[in-house]
Each structure stands twice: as C-alpha cells, then as structure tokens.
User: Fold this.
Amino acid sequence: MTSKVTPRVRMPATATAGEIIEVKTLISHEMESGQRKDASGKIIPRHIINKFTATFNGQEILSADWHPAISANPYQSFSVRAAESGVFVFSWFDDDGSVYKSEHTVTVS
Amino acid sequence: MLKDVRTRRDILFVTAGFAAFAALPVSPLLAAGADVEPLIKKIAGEKTISEGRISLDLPTIAENGLVVPLNFEVESPMTADDYVKSVHFFADGNPNPQVADYTFTPLSPKAAAQLRIRLAKTQTITALAVMSNGDVFSTKKEVKVTIGGCGG
Assistant:
C-alpha cells in the first residue's frame, strides 16, 4: 500500500514587505491509523506522519503534532508573514523516521 | 445497456461497503469513546478555562467521517509578548481522542490553520487554546457524522 510520499506546497514566490501570505500544503500519505484489520484479521500497524513544522530562515513559525485522526493525504493551510526575503522550509516527520522537506524562497520587494 | 449500468452500480456499492468495513475500529470497546477530561486537565493544569477567543469551523453534518474539514482561528495580536502558544483538538468519539496539537510562535501572523480530520461517529470536538500569559480558552462543536470512519 505504501506509495511514494510527495509533499506539495503552494505559495507565492514574491511578496511585499510585511505581507501575510497563505501557504497551502498537501502530502500524499496513507496515514494508516493502526485501527484497521487486514483480510486475515491482523491489525495493520500504525504508520502516520506525526509531526509537521514550518520555519523561516531557520526560525520556527509553527509546528503541529498529528495523531491518527488526521485524514489520509494530509492537507493543511496556514498563514506566514513575509518580513524579509528568505527561505521557508516545511518538514513532515514520518513514523518510520523519514523526513520529507519542501523549501520555498520568497523574495520581498 | 441498462444491465451494464446496474452491474457497475452494484460493484460501486460493494466497494463502498468494503471501504466502510475496512475502516471499522478494532473493538466496540475502543470505539465507545475516550474521556477527554484528563487530556484537557494535563494541558490546562489548575487554570480556569474560559469560553471564547477561538473560532472553530466544522460542518454541522459531515457526510464522510474520513475527511472532515476543520478550520480554526484564535483571536490574538500575535506579538512577542501576547501570542497564542498552542491549540489542541480532541474528539471524544474517536478510538484515540487526540486529534492534533499546534504550537505557534510570534512569527506566525495568525494562530490559524485549516486541516482535514477523521471522525468515527457523531461526536463533540473540543478545541483548547493556551495563550502566552497562561490563559486557557476552550470551545466545543458537535459534528453529526452520517457515514462514519466506522460505517455508522
């Protein structure tokens, strides 16, 4: 069932100083809850993304701890402030230890 | 021609039924719901919990319990000395009542986010917000789930 996990982020590449911009993120992930059983009645082990973080130039903006109640292919949107030009890094932390990252440079004019 | 359509619909129906079955929780006991009070207590401690400040946007009726949109925003100036520290969500009818815990910093222009959650059945969602000065706010909303994360 495991397919390739791909994070997708939509946000503008340019902004005016101090502008509040909306970030939309989506990551393809089964988010197996650990509650389901397979055809032979065995519990399918939990396998979810348990943490999401957003940073700007290395400083944390927000983070989220996710539990199995988060839907498959987690979607999330939130706001960030473009105070200066810099790099936004979004990271998703998988139960299996993998970290999926997506970097976005925003130029402030 | 007509027969073809019916067969296709039957297949769809069977597939939908299987999906609902596959999403069944492990045991009815677990699905009976968990107590969210101790979890709230753990975060709020001895602080008095006030109503308000949080706008929690959830559908009144969710047709599909596997994907329920949840939008929230906590009223706050989000400055270095007055901001929202964390926001927590609990679902009392899910096998595991914890849904998500958000941590904000003054770098966030708004203590807000939109996400998608799973709900096993009709239940009440509780949102809890902790401010930088330690104040705790809470709000609740009931969501009726027609096709639950567990076929109910």
Notes: Chain B is about 20% helix and 40% strand.
